[in-house]
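Provenance

Sequences were taken from public entries as deposited. Structures were produced by running a predictor on each sequence independently, with no templates supplied. The record for ABC transporter domain-containing protein from Sphingobacterium kyonggiense is shown for reference.
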Amino acid sequence: MDREVVIKTDKLTKQFGDFIATNAISFEVFKGEIFGFLGANGAGKTTAMKMLCGLSKPSSGTARIAGFDVYKDTESIKKNIGYMSQKFSLYEDLTVKENIEFFGGIYGLRGKLLKQKRDELLNTLGLHSEQNELVSALPLGWKQKLAFSVAILHNPKIVFLDEPTGGVDPVTRRQFWDLIYAASDQGITVFVTTHYMDEAEYCNRISMMVDGEIRALDTPQNLKKQFIAQNMDEVFYTLARTAQRKGD
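Predicted structure for ABC transporter domain-containing protein:
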């Protein structure tokens, strides 16, 4: 893993009225790293990701994504990242080929290069014979694999994955992570939010979010030692209980 910093935040905060959704988070992510944002629903993971993607302006603090400022360079950020969400990644009423071409165009691919990237992707995923099928006809696991592959079609510096494997069976989820490892090996930084404890252990490092704050950040192995826990379920439970006591 390269030590080049591609994501850097300092006290990044997002506030909605009196509610602080993300509270002064500071961290760095390196080139080619698989960085996990772990936390329960409502912990602030998606809010943080939207700021990092240039989709939501921070209330305070600073952040640079692929060398660009989240306040001034949002369009440049969008050109250098990929994004995949559990809720929306592909158009179900378009064919496999049409989805690839549509999103490739959004990412700036044109002409022969887009055709080349499209054909390479179809061959890699083994979907060449299904290219004219509607995406709605694909099994969920294949939709997720296609969505991830489309998100990195333009070889971005960073790909953001927001709860990408929700509702996917364990075998397909493990196959999906093989794609993540392959992207990391190519130098693409993977920033993934999840509430699955076993998935967190696939990451190089984990940031654990509780009530909008980062309560721990380290490798899965070091976090286990730090909290004297047998698995990530116990680590997360410890942090959640700490947050609850703090609020009492």
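The longest helix spans residues 170-185.
Residues 5-86+156-247 form a domain with the Rossmann fold fold (CATH 3.40.50.300).
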